[in-house]
Design a protein that fits this description.
By secondary structure, this protein is α/β, with parallel strands linked by helices. It contains 4 helices and 7 strands. Helix content is 30%, strand content 16%.
Length: 161
């Protein structure tokens, strides 16, 4: 990526920025599985490589507020990939769209025509910059295809679906 974006994490974990990837920690651990663990695992499998490229990561735990943070340029990007987000989180999308932002599914398909149905779960990318959106999508699609990611000679393997 040409510049380091500010990311809203869209997940239930805390990630503090340091210069080393090991600065990111998850409150959910495999040895002590809690109900939210599988959601965090889904999120990390899709978006962890993006975390390595970001200069600031924040978790508000309210996707509507995170989308508004992107709309007002307080954040650049949000990836919701938990397979557990209901469509009510997308009610802030008109604000993002009016501000010139982008909302797509994890394959890059626009969600402009998405019919919001009760109990529907939606994974998505929200972004305020077309170039950053394309770069982020390329990382996600590459990870889905190869199920591994290399950053600074460190290899990460994931079981992406």
């Amino acid at each position: 990526m040409r510049y380091t974006p500010r990311l809203c994490s869209g997940c239930h974990f805390c990630c503090r920025y340091t210069n080393e990837p090991k600065g990111c920690t998850s409150h959910e651990k495999q040895s002590a599985v809690r109900p939210g663990y599988s959601l965090a695992k889904n999120q990390l499998e899709v978006s962890f490589p993006i975390f390595l490229l970001c200069r600031d990561i924040r978790a508000i735990d309210n996707a509507g507020m995170e989308i508004c943070e992107i709309a007002r340029n307080a954040a650049d990007l949000m990836i919701e990939a938990r397979k557990g987000s209901d469509n009510y989180n997308l009610l802030a999308y008109p604000i993002l769209k009016y501000a010139g932002g982008i909302l797509s599914d994890l394959s890059g398909n626009s969600l402009d025509e998405l019919s919001l149905e009760e109990e529907q779960q939606v994974d998505y990318i929200a972004c305020n910059n077309p170039q950053l959106f394309q770069e982020t999508l390329a990382v996600i699609l590459k990870l889905k295809q190869s199920q591994q990611y290399i950053h600074d000679n460190i290899h990460f393997s994931f079981g992406c679906s």
